């Protein structure tokens, strides 16, 4: 662990808490530009897979956590000022959310081109799961989620059952979608109440694949 800490300290975090990261495939192709903070670099070093800091979502995410297009890190280089990193990776699938191999797939002035974007549906659930977790650990006045946790197991389970019934009796397509969204939310609350993460459920489903 001390060796890991020493590696992380080599980056000049005093200049900026977030540093740019150029990501290059093992064949020399530049794939993308991302960002890391100390925690993202630590997770990358610990797991061997690229983790980045999302400035828009303000959280750490593993590259490919939703799409499966992970980046296995082969080497990490640091620039002369110690405030930028270069990751040499083995890219699984594509690197760009547009479905292109690299984020740098067009010349300046060329029109946008998508070849089939990545489905980030699971990201929405992960973000919702994180909000629910925060409301459980740090209750907020006026928060419906915090109110559910305060009222306890009976209320949480009852609401989940009610939402399940709402899905079953819904007839119109739009209504089914609406009620299913409610059901998923209350399912995440139920899981959080029991200290179960969505990732554990996904792991169980993955294990059932033949």
Task: Give an overview in words.
- The longest helix is centred in the C-terminal third of the chain and has 21 residues, at 173-193.
- The protein has seven helices and six strands, in the order αββαββββααααα.
- The protein folds into two domains: 2-91, Roll (Ubiquitin-like (UB roll)); 121-207, Helix Hairpins (Orthogonal Bundle).
- The protein is an alpha+beta fold.
- The protein is globular, with a radius of gyration of 21 Å.
- It has helices at residues 2-9, 38-47, 121-137, 144-151, 153-169, 173-193, 198-207, and strands spanning 19-25, 30-36, 51-54, 59-62, 71-78, 85-91.
Q: What's the name of the CATH homologous superfamily of the largest domain? A: Phosphoribosyl-AMP cyclohydrolase
The helix tally amounts to 7
Query: Structurally, how many domains make up the residues?
Result: 2
Assign an overall shape: globular
Instruction: Describe the main β-sheet briefly.
Output: 4 strands, mixed
Return Rg in Å.
Answer: 21 Å
Proportion of helical residues: 40-55%
* Named CATH topology of the largest domain: Ubiquitin-like (UB roll)
Let me know the average pLDDT.
92
């Amino acid at each position: 662990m001390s060796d890991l800490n020493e590696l992380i300290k080599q980056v000049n975090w005093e200049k900026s808490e977030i540093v740019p990261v150029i990501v290059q495939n093992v064949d020399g192709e530049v794939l993308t530009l991302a960002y890391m903070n100390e925690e993202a670099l630590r997770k990358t070093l610990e797991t061997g897979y690229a983790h980045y800091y999302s400035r828009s979502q303000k959280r750490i995410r593993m590259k490919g956590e939703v799409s499966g297009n992970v980046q296995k890190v082969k080497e990490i280089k640091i620039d002369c000022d110690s405030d930028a990193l270069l990751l040499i990776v083995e890219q699984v699938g594509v690197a760009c959310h547009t479905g292109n191999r690299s984020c740098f797939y067009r010349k300046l002035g060329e029109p946008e081109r998508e070849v089939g974007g990545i489905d980030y549906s699971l990201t929405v659930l992960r973000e919702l799961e994180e909000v629910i977790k925060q409301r459980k650990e740090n209750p907020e006045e006026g928060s419906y989620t915090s109110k559910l946790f305060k009222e306890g197991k009976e209320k949480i389970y009852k609401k989940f059952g009610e939402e399940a019934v709402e899905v079953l009796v819904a007839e119109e397509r739009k209504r089914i979608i609406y009620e299913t969204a409610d059901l998923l939310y209350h399912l995440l609350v139920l899981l959080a109440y029991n200290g179960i993460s969505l990732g554990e459920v996904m792991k169980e489903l993955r294990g059932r694949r033949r």
